[in-house]
Amino acid sequence: MADERQVIVSVKNLKQYFNIGKPNMVKAVDDVSFDIYKGETFGLVGESGSGKSTTGRSIIRLYNPTDGHIYFNGQDISKIKSHGSKMKEFRREMQMIFQDPYASLNPRMKVKDIIAEGLDVHHLVKNDDERDKRVRELLDMVNLNPEHMTRYPYEFSGGQRQRIGIARALAVDPQFIIADEPISALDVSIQAQVVNLMQDIQKKQGLTYLFIAHDLSMVKYISDRIAVMYRGKIVELANSDEIYNNPLHPYTQSLLSAIPVPDPAIETKRTRIDFDHKRPFEDDQRLQEVLPGHFLYCNDEKAASLKKN
Amino acid sequence: MDKILEVKDLHVDFDTYNGVVHAIRGVSFHLNAGETLAIVGESGSGKSITVRSILQLLAKNGTISKGEVLYHGDDLLQKSDKEMDKLRGNKISMIFQDPMTSLDPTMTIGKQVAEPLLIHNNVSKKDALKRAEEVLRLVGIPNPQARMNDYPHQFSGGQRQRIVIAIAIVDYPEILIADEPTTALDVTVQAQIIDLLKELQQKIGTSIIFITHDLGVVAGIADRVAVMYAGRLVEFGSVNDIFYNPQHPYTWGLLDSMPTLDTNESDRLNSIPGTPPNLLNPPKGDAFAPRNAYAMEIDEEQQPPFFKVSKHHYAATWLLHPNAPKVTPPASILNRFEKFKKLGGNVK
């Protein structure tokens, strides 16, 4: 089945370093490769500092990648210039939803102007009537009252603000959306509302998502495939059931063993798996396919033994 | 069991630009010696304000308009600020959510951990620092002797939260109030901090009030659980009562809206529709009624009292009234009832 699927985003040997040449150089993303298929939700999980957000930000070109390539629909976008027309074209196809619904909306702009900013930049509407009509459509799509389009962000709750952020991302009709911890700042009862909304819209519009999060149970629920990041590298990648039922990397195992489960009987019996952070990587290791569709960061010997079983 | 702390009919109001917000509207609960009580609720439900009222750490525009906070039978709300100072950080101490802002960036951590001892006890600086070193070792800071002279920025987030915990327990408090102590941390670090709190509880016998919005964390740490909504408790009971025999539709909604690792992508998540009410004008009836699929007419009119479910389990919902119609809870809740029966519980 995987062969028939069309690759929408392909990341090849992406490196994103900061403070290059200085003593405080950070290899935030260190040689990462993966493909995202059209129409799927690709989950990227890891702890703070693992490089998951940086990966997302490099893909949408908020940074200039240090090395490597990013292909979007087959076209290399890793080198296109920041303010050129090509970048503008590309940004219409790829949008982002941010973590903090308070900081990501301009408090001095009306909701309709926040949502329509993309429409204006790309000249997608001819006049104010058309603009208002499109904003109404978008507000309706994210289950907000179109009558509220002249209000300011402070008049909305966290969950409602995140819906505004989603409407803004959808305004330019993108193919691909990067959602960077879109529900982490929301209450449990509101998280489910936003996740359901994102899934409904995905079905209707055939969108592809890169869903970045640290909440593993929600990631498992929403994602088709999941990549686990640790210190700038992908240590494991597989479909979401496989990651949860058959985690192979000790870091993935440790991460899964730490997820709190809302069931006291399970919690009292839980044993945590500790991960040794001292020597996480060896020189002879690389990300390779060890089972069909299941990639592991390991050496060739380990891969060969896993393939045999 | 000994009731070490008892909060009775607590009411807290906040004066705001838009009017008076009735943030806490009659909350009563108690804490038994040696146990961990978890208070769960969404942001704005009043869980933090409730525990801050215990230590009278409210913002300037907040007033406790009614209620009692009995500590060993003594009403803390009648005490002067000076008397409260003797209790804070000594008998009752608090861990705050954000380890980044609750430490003084200009003070070495050794001094910060020793500070409560120097203020409350008549100990020499040398002894206090020695004790600080012991406690830092206890909370798992490696090589504490050398790190005593380091500043907060030289530690990771998880280590800083350990330091905050060290400050809170250095005087072996009777009561430890932890306000979302793990929310800002990664899951693996969160698991370590929870294990640490459990271990400390066994070693020094502290009673803990643990505030969180994460039901997974509650399942792992609590002996008893109180669920808050819109400034009131809606249900309380043992951890098994709340997780396997929940009675309030809000508790159902909270448990039901979390995906478990068995939830498939094809199953839609059950969300609670709408948002919590504005407490500038608290609703006349049950505050949860507008979001409650099981609401009845009486919910709009009259606040439900607490109905007894079992010896220590109470829920404030009209569904428990003898005349209420029988309703079927969500499927995931029925599964929980099955587990309750297996544990020997009595499901109504």
From TrEMBL, chain A:
<dbReference type="GO" id="GO:0055085">
    <property type="term" value="P:transmembrane transport"/>
</dbReference>
<dbReference type="InterPro" id="IPR003439">
    <property type="entry name" value="ABC_transporter-like_ATP-bd"/>
</dbReference>
<keyword id="KW-0547">Nucleotide-binding</keyword>
<dbReference type="GO" id="GO:0015833">
    <property type="term" value="P:peptide transport"/>
</dbReference>
<dbReference type="InterPro" id="IPR017871">
    <property type="entry name" value="ABC_transporter-like_CS"/>
</dbReference>
<keyword id="KW-0653">Protein transport</keyword>
<dbReference type="Pfam" id="PF08352">
    <property type="entry name" value="oligo_HPY"/>
</dbReference>
<keyword id="KW-0067">ATP-binding</keyword>
<keyword id="KW-0571">Peptide transport</keyword>
<dbReference type="InterPro" id="IPR003593">
    <property type="entry name" value="AAA+_ATPase"/>
</dbReference>
<dbReference type="GO" id="GO:0016887">
    <property type="term" value="F:ATP hydrolysis activity"/>
</dbReference>
<comment type="similarity">
    <text>Belongs to the ABC transporter superfamily.</text>
</comment>
<dbReference type="GO" id="GO:0015031">
    <property type="term" value="P:protein transport"/>
</dbReference>
<keyword id="KW-0813">Transport</keyword>
<dbReference type="InterPro" id="IPR013563">
    <property type="entry name" value="Oligopep_ABC_C"/>
</dbReference>
<dbReference type="InterPro" id="IPR027417">
    <property type="entry name" value="P-loop_NTPase"/>
</dbReference>
<dbReference type="GO" id="GO:0005886">
    <property type="term" value="C:plasma membrane"/>
</dbReference>
<feature type="domain" description="ABC transporter">
    <location>
        <begin position="9"/>
        <end position="256"/>
    </location>
</feature>
<dbReference type="InterPro" id="IPR050319">
    <property type="entry name" value="ABC_transp_ATP-bind"/>
</dbReference>
<dbReference type="GO" id="GO:0005524">
    <property type="term" value="F:ATP binding"/>
</dbReference>
<dbReference type="Pfam" id="PF00005">
    <property type="entry name" value="ABC_tran"/>
</dbReference>
<protein>
    <submittedName>
        <fullName>Putative ABC transporter ATP-binding protein</fullName>
    </submittedName>
</protein>
UniProtKB/TrEMBL annotation, chain B:
<dbReference type="GO" id="GO:0015833">
    <property type="term" value="P:peptide transport"/>
</dbReference>
<keyword id="KW-0067">ATP-binding</keyword>
<dbReference type="GO" id="GO:0016887">
    <property type="term" value="F:ATP hydrolysis activity"/>
</dbReference>
<dbReference type="GO" id="GO:0005524">
    <property type="term" value="F:ATP binding"/>
</dbReference>
<dbReference type="Pfam" id="PF00005">
    <property type="entry name" value="ABC_tran"/>
</dbReference>
<dbReference type="InterPro" id="IPR003593">
    <property type="entry name" value="AAA+_ATPase"/>
</dbReference>
<dbReference type="InterPro" id="IPR027417">
    <property type="entry name" value="P-loop_NTPase"/>
</dbReference>
<dbReference type="InterPro" id="IPR003439">
    <property type="entry name" value="ABC_transporter-like_ATP-bd"/>
</dbReference>
<keyword id="KW-1003">Cell membrane</keyword>
<dbReference type="Pfam" id="PF08352">
    <property type="entry name" value="oligo_HPY"/>
</dbReference>
<keyword id="KW-0813">Transport</keyword>
<feature type="domain" description="ABC transporter">
    <location>
        <begin position="5"/>
        <end position="255"/>
    </location>
</feature>
<dbReference type="GO" id="GO:0005886">
    <property type="term" value="C:plasma membrane"/>
</dbReference>
<protein>
    <submittedName>
        <fullName>Oligopeptide transport ATP-binding protein OppD</fullName>
    </submittedName>
</protein>
<comment type="similarity">
    <text>Belongs to the ABC transporter superfamily.</text>
</comment>
<dbReference type="InterPro" id="IPR050388">
    <property type="entry name" value="ABC_Ni/Peptide_Import"/>
</dbReference>
<keyword id="KW-0472">Membrane</keyword>
<dbReference type="InterPro" id="IPR017871">
    <property type="entry name" value="ABC_transporter-like_CS"/>
</dbReference>
<keyword id="KW-0547">Nucleotide-binding</keyword>
<dbReference type="InterPro" id="IPR013563">
    <property type="entry name" value="Oligopep_ABC_C"/>
</dbReference>
